[in-house]
Amino acid sequence: MKPDGRRRFAIIGFGAITEEVVRTLDEPRELSALAGVLVRRSHLDAAKRKAAGRFPVVATLDEILALRPDVVAECAGHGAMREFGAAILGRGVDLICSSVGVLADAAFARTLVGARLLIPSGAIAGIDGLLASRTAGLRSVTYTPVKAPAAWMGTPAEEQVRAAGQQRITFFEGTAREAALRYPKNVNVGATVALASLGLDRTQVKMVSDPEASGPLGIIDASGDFGTFRFEILAYASPHNPKTSLLTAHSIILAARENVCFEFRP
Fold first, then answer.
1. pTM score of the predicted model
2. What percent of the chain is predicted at pLDDT more than 70?
């Protein structure tokens, strides 16, 4: 841990999220907080060129853990969580999971034991309210992602969305677990909402295609003994990299350095 009390962290993957993290930390000259980045050996040379000597880039789990990070952040997709998650936690190192939807696989989730598995807020707001409401009589939670038709191409909804043409449609209604298992690349936020509230089997998800959507809109509706609340989050892509939400990368920084996140408990 650094003298100022902030944690040093490592990252798995050098894609859009990591690039935004690096850009953000580089501006105030705080890249010393980044212990290193783990990538596949086939990507090692290209990743080292991007790093330009500012931080270590390695190709094995032993090498990244030898850099002694206080926490590791997974920023490389479900496959990376499946490959490295259990091993990192089993070695006693806390792990931040950005690919939260993978935790819908109950059998896999049960292998994640040892150190703490941490969930960042990602491209969403209101997580603190959901966490507090769990002990304040929370009774129902629904997460509704609304995106333009193009955003659903390449997913199981593609045929339905094409058939709807220029009409707004709700093409999926079910539990957060069902949504994450059916749309593994599209429901990380929904899984985060569920894990912060009623769980994957009691949180509802409605998935919407809307030709008039100006961007990826996420809506959280919750109610219970405490009252009701509704959050609407239009999470724009990073101006530096359109592949990732600006909030996602910054939530990783906040979780890694300030421990602003919550712990996953299967």
1. 0.94
2. 97
